[in-house]
């Protein structure tokens, strides 16, 4: 790629200008002065009919002024040798077009319309002198091309300078953005860059709003996580206390369950013992009733013995009377009845002893009968007492059976309660472990603080200022009964 031409002298040399190149300028100027106004009127009528092009001029008067200036420039172009003053005028035209954003098409189309009107006239007039006409036409085309080159070079230089200014401004704004300052805007950009400024402003506004939302979310996360962290600490303490209480309750319930189980077992044994005692009492009642029957038999036998002894006593009395009578008769018999009197005396003595023995036996039997009657009464009382005892033992047996059943049910219920307490203890331990996991909220709060600090580095303007993170009060846990 060749080096760009920077000096106007080099540019003239590139177009082949020499001192002799200006000989045809006066003739060209006369032709331009005669025919250019009509060509420019047609050009500006076309511009006036094109709203997008007419918008660059603002008013018909400004458009007429521009047309007159362009005609004056063309007349000046062919007024003499091309020097720096001409270059400055031509470059000013290109710079103005670049500044107002007028496309080079309209500038070049003006030359096209002039050349379209003038060249045929030059060629028709040159039919008698083709060499002069060719020289005039060449001079017109070469000057037009040079003028377009100078103006367009200035136009593109101004455009490049404007682009460099825009790039520099964008660079400064992006540098501020990189530094966290999102209040920087792309204001006062040249025409043609409105879309860039609008897109940048939309991006900046949305990004600022997003950062503001991130900051607000970080503050809310910080607030919520701080509350959750405090609540988790409180919950952890209460869970530990509850776990300890449940552990103690479980131990106490286990002891109570064991005690109630032993009580149920003791009640069952007592029920068995009472049942056995009831059986033995019933057996004793049977024995007492048998004893009562035996005592009644003894009493009847004693009565019968007393009757028999009374008979024996009567026999002894009769025998004694008979012996007495026999002694009387023996005494009457004298010596012959002496032996019989001895026998009668012995019989009488024997009868007396029998009567005495019968009296003694009767007295003993009578005493024994009295004692037997006392024994019968006492056995009867004992039988009645045993019946009452048997009835009470039956009541006690029923009560002990109920106690045994209730103790068994209590033992089962306490076993279920003990199981439930053990499960609650296990769940509480799991809750305690989960509360330890919930302690990650502290890490979340720290991360939220770090995020808020990072976002706080950005300057987001008044509309999206990130809120200052604040510590929330811990969530209060209300115990319920």
Characterise the protein shown here.
The chain is mainly α and 481 residues long. The protein folds into two domains: 8-178, Globins (Globin-like); 207-444, Helix Hairpins. The chain contains ten helices and no strands. The protein has helices spanning 8-14, 25-48, 51-54, 60-77, 84-100, 104-125, 130-178, 194-333, 338-438, 440-456. Helix 2 (25-48) packs antiparallel against helix 4 and helix 6 packs antiparallel against helix 7. The protein is rod-shaped. The two termini are 91 Å apart. The relative contact order is 0.09.
Structural descriptors:
disordered C terminus; Helix Hairpins; rod-shaped; mainly alpha; 481 residues; single chain
* SSE pattern: HHHHHHHHHH
Q: How many domains in all?
A: 2
Write down the CATH class of the largest domain.
Mainly Alpha
| Fraction in beta strands | under 5%
Mean pLDDT: 79
CATH superfamily of the largest domain: Methyl-accepting chemotaxis protein
Secondary structure category: mainly alpha
GO molecular function, one term: heme binding
Keywords: Chemotaxis
InterPro entries: Chemotax_Me-accpt_rcpt, Globin-like_sf, Globin-sensor_dom, Globin/Proto, HAMP_dom, MCP_chemotaxis, MCPsignal_dom, Protoglobin_sensor_dom
Family: Belongs to the methyl-accepting chemotaxis (MCP) protein family.
